[in-house]
Design goal:
Blueprint (H helix, E strand, L loop, with lengths): L11 H30 L2 E5 L4 E5 L5 E6 L1 H4 L3 H31 L8
Antiparallel strand pairs: 1-2, 2-3
Length: about 120
């Protein structure tokens, strides 16, 4: 070890980088809080059967409502069940993709030194 006050190899430049990283991390945390609120308010539509069944979920996959066309009811219980399931999957896939995109936007440019 050298006795030049460098401690654990953490010079002033590294401290500055680390402080900047903490600042960015704090911004990301604040952005994540806003994003969570935004996702809760969002309405994402999943459909099946050409719109016979629609499922609306929030950006974080919370079910909001289901709309079933009278024409879908005439299809019988088994087909209706399949349509609801397909619409739910569609809504889930779309909301997951939306959440992933928003998180990537939020964390882009976040580079932590030494990691």
């Amino acid at each position: 070890m050298t006795g030049k006050g460098q401690g654990f190899g953490f010079g002033l430049g590294k401290m500055k980088e680390l402080a900047e990283a903490f600042k960015k991390a704090q911004q990301v945390q604040e952005g994540a809080k806003r994003l969570q609120e935004e996702l809760e308010q969002m309405e994402i539509l999943g459909e099946a059967g050409g719109g016979l069944v629609k499922v609306i979920v929030s950006g974080n996959q919370e079910p909001k409502r289901v709309e079933i066309s009278p024409d879908a009811l005439a299809q019988g219980a088994d087909l209706l069940s399949d349509l609801v399931t397909a619409a739910m999957k569609d809504a889930y896939i779309k909301s997951t993709a939306t959440m992933r995109e928003r998180m990537e936007d939020l964390t882009s440019g976040l580079e932590l030194p030494g990691f």
